[in-house]
């Protein structure tokens, strides 16, 4: 059985040149309009941390800044543990790709915080919305989509599906949908980081107008540990995403992902460039 | 007239050693329990970008990771424009402080995106909550507070004020309050970055229990330009903050800041360590 497309997309080979330096190649399976799906880029930045021999604990926070669209082909990711404390570790990452002249150019920057987590009091102040079960919601029928990455996810929109008529009739920016990798794949931190970017641009929904867009920065907080992720397995996640402010070329998106059992697995925010 | 305490706290001298390297000193006026107020640290990271000779545009996104508590005294901030595009610029920052042996240690990392913004279509999908005017809300009377920084802000809590009885009776994590610098100071990006961290720990409100805490990472998106900030002047901002998930030593906080006129100036998220 061949590896899952996501595992192929996230494959990183450790370079001999320097500790924390990894080599990868962009994946056609997760291609977006003018570069790779930003979710896989975020997952790759995290993957470099997760594969680093000095890793302490598990991801708590991840911020990825998209400095330039990657070209199809090889790239490198450097992950550096700049500060290691007793129970937390601070990381800086940078993704680079050779330009036409073979000169390495920075295409993305990132930071992460990993930590050893202990059991404490807890509470969820953002309960999962009441929605019909995945089986009762029709799968978004787009495959083969114009962009490859959309076919790598099983999306079952409950509210705020991608507009079918681009007539400027939009009046809200909230999407609620069940989603998981397609084909199904057991959930882990890298996959969750990618899923947090699995919502189409809020501005398209809000305006019912497909203007050019590009995420410039995404920040994801992980609220669970590896054991809790493993319990989710290949189950569906309920994703919610909404825009908060659209102004002068940028809008933000607040997103949350719950397990089908109602555990808030991750909260994620991004800011996105848009034209017009 | 002596400079505003915030301007003293954010004073950075450009080092001759390297472009983008700045020297500063911690401010007693904004001291917190075991280090400086995290808001001023975030503002200082941004300040290094704003004072950089190669700056393009204005802040759109800022992420600051708190790697260690600063000691009282001098520190340095290095801001590097790692990628400059036609209308966006990507920054990495690092704050360092000499340890007992005089060896520089990383105490914080950060990234920022600045951009030239053009007028576009816009919409606010997170309208300002209906609340009484600042004059109708009593000012939080804590001064002189146990911690200095709290006295640097005029806070008028409408909902979710800091508990007066630590009896474990908490049942929500939302605070709504009018706030501004004290004494009043015309709003700018650095002050706004600091104000986004002006909410006391959500876990204290949620549990009515003052457990040890520490912000590990904060991300702020700026939705306005310098002109729009100038229009706010010394007016009050309406701040809203709420926890979303508290689990195994960490909780997140989603915050929004509106101008008194109802413009959503910034949206900010942070993840915070807590004990027990």
From TrEMBL, chains A, B:
Q: Which InterPro entries has this protein been placed in?
A: ACOT8-like_C, Acyl-CoA_hotdog, HotDog_dom_sf, TesB_ACOT8-like_N
- Domain Acyl-CoA thioesterase-like C-terminal, by residue range, is 139-273
Q: Which domain of life is it from?
A: Bacteria
Question: Can you give the residue ranges of the Acyl-CoA thioesterase-like N-terminal HotDog domain?
Answer: 29-113
This chain belongs to the protein called Thioesterase family protein
Q: Which organism is it from?
A: Variovorax defluvii
Upper lineage: Bacteria, Pseudomonadati, Pseudomonadota, Betaproteobacteria, Burkholderiales
